[in-house]
Amino acid sequence: EDKVVQSPLSLVVHEGDTVTLNCSYEVTNFRSLLWYKQEKKAPTFLFMLTSSGIEKKSGRLSSILDKKELFSILNITATQTGDSAVYLCAVVNAGGTSYGKLTFGQGTILTVHP
Amino acid sequence: EPEVTQTPSHQVTQMGQEVILRCVPISNHLYFYWYRQILGQKVEFLVSFYNNEISEKSEIFDDQFSVERPDGSNFTLKIRSTKLEDSAMYFCASSEGPRDRYYEQYFGPGTRLTVT
């Protein structure tokens, strides 16, 4: 069974801090790993990572994948109160007839205080 | 920017009743999905749909559930006889396809289903 574990489960920081969120996975037929930000409702797509060692970056957010050690990290620098959310990691199993089913981790709750 | 939309935002129903949750995927997307999230738990895959048929479904997606694309824009999830444990947030997602692009799934705002 595919498995995704995120750590820490929750994190409280102050504005300006840098945070690192972790995601480890076990999945047969790994295809890619995705990060989402979930505020009130819908998960909002952040990154998709397919290859090891290639950093993806968007503003203050960046992410990298290690396919040998089976984990990914999401970094947020100079955090702002608007970064407060649940950050979800999900993996895609592309084996057989799978059409991109996502298996999610439990999420990391990030709270950024002013 | 194109987005996935869902209606209603909140649905309250009595146990045993049928509900239909509606989604309008992003217009040029070809792959459609339903996920659910029970309060405090992980987001769980229910079903994927491509080319007018189910391509994959989870153990949760039993005979009480069905999906349909009744026209060129809507994608629906029907629960025939709701149970208390069906109470959850239901998310629709879509992706572009083919090949690498179909792994980037974009989610709608969700429908909160409450079964009483």
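qc> Chain B has a mean pLDDT of 92.
qc> done
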